[in-house]
Request: fold
Amino acid sequence: MSTTRVAIVATEGFSTFHLSVPLILFGETAGETPLFTRLICADKPGLVWSKDGTAVKAEYGVEALENADIVVVPFWNNIDQRPSAGLLTSLINARQNGATLVGLCLGTFVLAHAGLLDGRRASTHWEFEALFQQRFPQVRLDVNVLYVEDDRIITSAGTAAALDCCLYVIRQRFGARVANHIARRMVTPPYREGGQVQYIARRVPHNTTDSRINTLLDFLQQHVHESHDIDALAQRVSMSRRTLTRHFQASTGMSPGEWISRERIHRSQELLETTDLSVERVAEQVGFQSAITFRQTFRHKLGVSPVEWRKTFRGTMPAA
Reply:
């Protein structure tokens, strides 16, 4: 049985972890028979050094990408640097020859530079969302997912999402049984619930340039567990309902109702991570009228349930 040819692009200053993920996963087997043939490729064959002082030997130039079944770009060292013409041309040719293309984390930038993501959905590390959208407005970026596929082009979020993405590629090509077998050997979940949105450090705005809005935000922080009426809030800062809505939106980028909802979710995250309170009690303490509404809002905002969030971020050590 012929193996699947996987070409992995190594670039100077690569991240050891990012490169190791496809090297390990596409070097695994599901039995005696190898599944993959790995080709480590670079603009210039030879030793390629990481930012950590390790090195990998690239035996092939980027032209080898054109004959691969799967091409993986696991990293890009400098997002301000345009990839070489040779690399971009080989990626385009690989695509035309029927290869599945995979961009892990900042590798998405490389595929975008090649024009391969134009009009397609893609993902990358959430910290680079604004910069990516500014440079590639023709790409439909989605940073709420761990990975996304659009017509055999697969891109992923940052760092550990590379594991999820590569396991997805294996699952698509060889089925769930093989992917699950490899995941167990790696001691990693074969599939993670939720998306990248769980890990994005986006705090609710608490200070703005509008002093009256700041006064209102201070009040809401102290009384987030209470019910609030927009007319009463407007009266508190001596504004009309319409004026408050306009000023609040201009200052925080959201409506009062959305701000309150986000603040409640943020408070609930802290309680789930730091206390043993039941989900019902957490919902009550942060101002949700029912645990059902809390669970629905939490999943809508973060893609996972409150219980799943607690399991992920509580970090409780197992009993001896």
Residues 194-202, 316-320 have pLDDT under 50 and may be disordered. The two ends are 46 Å apart (CA to CA).
